[in-house]
Structure formats: structure tokens, C-alpha cells
Amino acid sequence: MKKLGIVLMVLVLACGVVFAGGKKEAAPKTEGVTVRLLTDATGIDDKSFNAAAWRGILEFYGDTADNPANRGKLYDVVTAATSDMYIPNLKNAADEEFDLVIVTGFTWADALAEVAPLYPDQKFMIVDVNWIGQPNVREYVYKEEQGSYLVGLAAALQAKADGIENPKFGFIGGVPSSTITKFEVGYIQGLKSVYPDAEVVDYYANDWGAPEKAKLQAKNWYDNGVYCIFSAAGGTGNGTINQAKEYRMAGKNVWAIGVDSDQYEDGIYTGSKSSVLTSMLKVVEASTLDALNLVKAEKFTSGIVEMTLTDGGVGYSKANAELKADVIAAVDAAAKKIVSGEIYVVPTYKDALAAGKVPAGLGALDD
């Protein structure tokens, strides 16, 4: 059993706890699987990606965000203020011998690839990476393009139902990568299934924690006729939601689309009205929960695990009552066609561009 570094300093002679020669008995080991989650600077309060990973951990232990009873005993989280803390944080977690160490996001890939071989007995898992290839690392990847197609379709159908001619759409990314490209190109394919000539603009903040950048860009786009903006940018995307919230309060018919977690509540501006039309759900909690259950059952293995629309790894939110019933019906029908293979969503910019499914000049990158 792993030690979490807590030393009991209680002297109870009646129970036979004896200190001799200045030494005390070892503290009893905590029962249960132990895990440490390591995140980037946005932390578990990003209301998006890291928050989803954290939810899986809480669910495994039967805890909630309001009552994380086992935090500090069986699990904890450490946030790296800067990327130069990634390797030290990984080594510290391995040195403390947690049963599982979890890192979230491809920005951790290089650090994990360096540290994992140094601790062959330590189990690691990472999300959004499939190239580590170490025997002690379990790698989870998602078909983000599938869920993103659904929210793009929803936005386009909502615009059509609103009677908007030639609507414009926007996409805001965090740090460019093949993962974020899947969000963007999937979204655009969904849009263009309704509006083949739709104008789409994109912007990359090169930051996961700069909501002010997204807010400023969103304001500029909304002021220039953009109907809906999808952000796949971690905490940065909260700026898009806040700008949409301000404009909907002012009576403007603009929307934001959330990502990873259902961000409907983050967009609420009056009563139950939200500026978040829908959210592309990337069920990261399924990954952390899966890995922890495998550790508990002593069946943890390395390798790549792909999460798809078929197994509930991705999807979209129906929480907003203003998302029209006909739109939901059409999106659900499209989801079934994706699962059956009738609709194929191209995951790379290169291939989507070659197929004429996305415009040239986007900021998307294929690693």
C-alpha cells in the first residue's frame, strides 16, 4: 500500500503505542487505491477538461465536488503553475508511490515520456496522447470530431430555424494541435452539412487560461455578424461564454458552444436562460474512472484506448431548453448515422481540406 506522507503523532499508551529510543511505530497505511491528478495551470476549476477528469476521480471514491471526503487521504490534485514544473511534479508523485498518476492533455506528453521509463513500476495514464508507448502508461484518445460534428450541426440548424440568412460561425482554439484540429474540422463539417457555403472564422489563443483573449475575439466577431462560436480552449473558452452572456442579456441573438463538460450553467444570465446553446461533451471522466477501476481490479494495462460516440465517450448537451426540439431530433438522427458509419467525420485538416469539407487558411494543425 502506498504512503500519502501523513504521519500520525498520537501517543496512546493504553493502546500499546510505544516510543522507544526516540523512534515511533510506522503510521498505518491507508486502505484503498490511491491516485494523484496532475494538471496544467488552469487546474480543476477550468469548468471544462480538467474538471471532467476530476469528476471521474470523485465518482470512483463516492465523493462529490461539495464533499471530497477522501481528498488528501486517497487522492489529491497538484496544479503546475508553469510547464517547467511538469517533470518535477511527475517525479514527486511517483516518489510518493501513488497507485496511479494521471496527467491531462497533450502538453504533458514530453514530460511523461521522459519520466515514465524512470519509474517502471509506477502506473500512469494520460488523456489526448497516443504516442508515449511505454509499458506502464495507459493512453486515452477521443473521437472529438464526432461530437464536434453534432454541435456544429446543432448550431447550423438553430440558425436556420431562426431564419438567419448566410449565418457566420466562429471557432476559438487553445494551443494548436491535432487534438484541437479534430474539434475544429468536425464542427465545420457539421455546419457545412446544412450551410455548404457558410463563412467560418477561427482564432487560436495559444493559451489554455486566457479568457480575456477569447472574450475580446468573441466580441469582435459577434459585432461583425457571427451567430455562434465554438471554443475548444480550456479555461480560455470561458471568455466566449461570458461575452455571449453579455450580448444575450442585451437582446442580441448570439450563442456560445461549450466543450468537454456541459457548460450550460456557466452561461446562465437570467433565470434558466443560458448563452450556451449546447456543449460538445468529451467524457474525460470515463477515462479516469476506467483506469482507476482497472487498478482496483489489478487489471491495469498499458496501451491506447479510443473513446467514441458509440461507447458514450463523446456527445452533445441538450440542457438548453432553447435548443429547438426539431434540431435535437435531427442531431440525434445524425448521431445514429455516425455510429452506423453512414456519416464519416474526417478527423484531420489535411484530409478534410482535400475532400472540400473545410475552407483553406484555417489555423488548424495536423501534428
Question: Can you describe what's shown?
Answer:
The chain is of the alpha/beta class and about 375 residues long. Helices cover about 35% and strands about 20% of the residues. It is built from 10 helices and 14 strands. The protein has helices at about 50-60, 85-95, 110-115, 145-160, 180-190, 210-225, 240-250, 285-295, 325-340, 350-355; strands at about 35-40, 75-80, 100-105, 125, 135-140, 170-175, 200-205, 225-230, 255-260, 270, 275, 275-280, 305, 315. The strands form 3 sheets. A 6-stranded parallel β-sheet has the order 2-1-3-4-5-13, sandwiched between helices. A 6-stranded mixed β-sheet has the order 7-6-8-9-12-14, sandwiched between helices. Helix 1 (about 50-60) links the parallel strand 1 and strand 2. Helix 2 crosses helix 3 and helix 4 packs parallel to helix 5 (about 180-190). The chain is globular, with a radius of gyration of 23 Å.
